Amino acid sequence: MDAKIALAGNPNSGKTSLFNELTGARQHVGNYPGVTVEKKEGTYFYNGYRMCIVDLPGTYSLTAYSEEEIVTRDFLVTENPDLVIDILDASNLERNLYLAVQFLEMGVPMCIALNMIDVAENRGIEINVKKLSVLLGIPVVSTIARTGEGKKDLISAAAQIIREGKQKRSFKISYGDDLDEALLEMEKEIMDSNFLTDTYDARWIALKYLENDKQILLKGQENNSSLSARLEKMVDKVSLHLEKTLNIYPEAMIADQRYGYINSIMKQGVMRQEHGQSRLYMSDKIDKIVTNRFLGPIIMISILMALYQFTFTYSEAPVVWFERFFGWLGDVVSTHLSDGFLKSLIISGVIGGVGGVLGFVPLIMFMFFGIALLEDSGYLARVAFMLDRVFRIFGLHGSSVMAYIVSGGIAGGCAVPGVMATRTLKSPRERLATLLTVPFMNCGAKLPIFALLIAAFFAKNEAAIMLVITLISWAGALLVAKLLRITIIKGEPSPFVMELPPYRLPTFKGLAIHTWERTWQYVKKAGTVILGISIILWAMMTFPGLPDSKVQEFENMREIEKVTSGTAVIQELQTHSGDTELSGEARNLKDRLAVIASQKAEESLRNSIAGRMGIALESISEWAGFDWRTNIALVGGFAAKEVIISTLGTAYSLGELDPEKSESLSETLVKTPGWSPLVALSLIIFTIFYAPCFITVIMIVKESGSWKWGIFSIVFNTTLAFALATLVFQVGSVMGILGG
After folding, report:
1. Number of structural domains, the chain?
2. Among 267, 372, 517, 703, which is most buried by a count of CB atoms within 10 Å?
3. CATH number of the domain enclosing 150
4. Predicted model pTM
């Protein structure tokens, strides 16, 4: 049987020595067509195989900057060898792995010859070959090419791969949110048009466009000029964005992330230097401290605490300004509009609903700024690296950490991209366990709910409570993941390799752009999706309204109060609006009329479609401390978690304790009977764990490939959330803590 094997590697890696050792006199030398690069071919016989071995030109990379690189790349694509043996200099492993990573990205069948292992040992370098093989997912064989040591083992491994046949392997590196998003968009365009896909992989083509590869750009323009122009425009867009935010270009970012990936491999016990001084870069020096087994977690928790302290401290005043603005806006509308459905819609549906969500924009903005600082500096990747040891205990993969962080593992993310981020996990079981638990993270939609309840009932310890909420969400997600992994999603965890990009000093411009982009997404959602849902829920909380007999009953109560007070008092009330200008009798009448109006509004809300739903659920929800108004909000939260705030705002403005006095929602909750710190804590626990929003459920279905997992996430999460909230409330009530 004939087989074609390509030998590749960096210059001076011992590639030619290995070629000579394998082929001996059975070789000939020529030039590749059209170029002056030397072409060497030879033959090796092994167990019935006639192996045609081609010695490719030595190269450090597969970018089209030199003839050697173009020849190597074109040979792999056009000649389609059965196997590539990548020869690595063991004494310069990190540098040599850069080419190996690019081969893996191309998807070619390959194995690694870890050459010059004797030179590495003389320099005090010890390499764990088995660990390196596991992490890369391909065979790695130690060799000494000049003596022939390891030659038989290498050929045996090569023959095994050839016997198994060419199997398409999926190997992807994350290049950061901006480039990953661009890659996905470009991949879709390329695959939809079959653009060069008969020769190259779609993702690889997209990468070459981002790297401004002249050869691929030329081929693309010849194949489909209009699509090529669109791809180049996408590259220009992301290039401009990266330049503004990080002062870097796609080519440099891609190289950084590849070396970050390699750096992660090196840090996992692959290489140990017993004597001599290893070269330490600044990032390595910092990592010795921040990823230390003992200091790392302490530093991480301290940074999170500082982030929350910063957010709550500096957002407090702007949040109050926003609350006052929306209160003032409600008063203005109330003054200039006559009573009716339009006035109710604007005040309760729009201002009370959307205004309640927008009131937290300053807090969201400060939180996003802090997260952008951690992300742009490279620290978040270190958090993921450190947590891998913990995640393995719970049957997850280290890459799950980034999915959790994207979903709001610190605060302020979104479960939708978190679910999509699980695509990087190779094991289907780990991927499923991760995408089912990422909705437990504190996404940006949950953050306003926590901020509201913390401000109302735990104002003295805001940062500490927020840190506790974060730890609860992580602990809950990991425990549920463990439960899933030992029951319905059993399987062994796969090896973890993750990019550790170099530390950078974030630019203020970059931080400002990232903060604005995420804050604007939040504002847009409030002004579109949340506005629409708020109007629908306002209608459900307004109609069908009170029957005529009940309306007349409240009118009679008002008339009785007026008649009892006398004409003079009524005229005084109509003439003067300010409480200080009124007599005691007039103020008493005003208070009694306000109570009647409040009773009428509450009765109308109870009789509405949403009110009836909330009351119907109250016999169950009261176990967790939730009243019928809270039930309405939580049902609305199935659509989007921000709706919980807007619905509470609408519900309490429709049934205002004092319709003439505008108060913030947090002030209203504190004064409302039935609310207490214990109820607030119960609601926080329920919000952390209950069903994902509708869009996230759709993404779970799409990524898992089955509706059963979407339905499972709704039923299981809600059941778990209610059980935990009930436990908290009932235990708290029995022990008499937090107002229980």
Report:
1. 3
2. 372
3. 3.40.50.300
4. 0.69
C-alpha 508/C-alpha 10 separation (Å) is 39
Q: Would you state the structure tokens that stand for residue 145, as one six-digit string?
A: 């090419």
Looking at the structure, do residues 37 and 159 belong to the same domain, yes or no? yes
pLDDT tens for residues 125-139? 889 999 999 999 899
Residue 700: inside a domain, yes or no? Answer: no
Domain range for 183 is 177-272
DSSP conformation class of 487: T
**What gap in Å lies between CA 310 and CA 370, rounded to an integer?**
8
Same structural domain, 333 and 415? yes
Q: Does residue 206 sit in the same domain as residue 240?
A: yes
Q: Which H or E run includes 50?
A: strand 49-55
Q: Which token pair is 86? A: 């990548």
- The whole-angstrom separation of Cα 659 and Cα 169 is 65
Tens digit of pLDDT for each residue in 380-432?
Answer: 878 878 887 788 888 887 778 878 887 876 766 678 777 876 766 767 888 89
pLDDT tens by residue, 521-551? 778 877 777 788 778 878 887 888 778 787 7
Report how far residue 142's alpha carbon sits from residue 114's, in angstroms, rounded to the nearest whole number.
5
Cα angle value 333/337/343 (rounded, 5°): 75
Q: Are residues 323 and 212 in the same domain?
A: no
Q: Which helix (H) or strand (E) holds 575?
A: helix 567-575
Q: Please provide the DSSP assignment of 641-702 as one string.
A: THHHHHHHHHHHHHT-SSTTS---HHHHHHHSTT--HHHHHHHHHHHHHS---HHHHHHHHH
The burial of 277, by beta-carbon neighbours within 10 Å (0-12 exposed, 13-18 middle, 19 or more buried), is given as: exposed
Residue at 678 is within a domain = no
Burial 647-672 (b: 16+ CB within 10 A, else e): bbbbbbbbbbbebeebbbbbebbbee
Q: Do the domain assignments include residue 611?
A: no
Instruction: Give the residues of the chain that fall short of pLDDT 50.
Output: 31-32, 34-36, 276-280, 657-660
Whether 330 and 398 share a structural domain = yes
pLDDT of residue 478: 93
Please tell me the number of Cα atoms within 13 Å of 627 on its side-chain side. 13
Pair (54, 193) in one structural domain: no
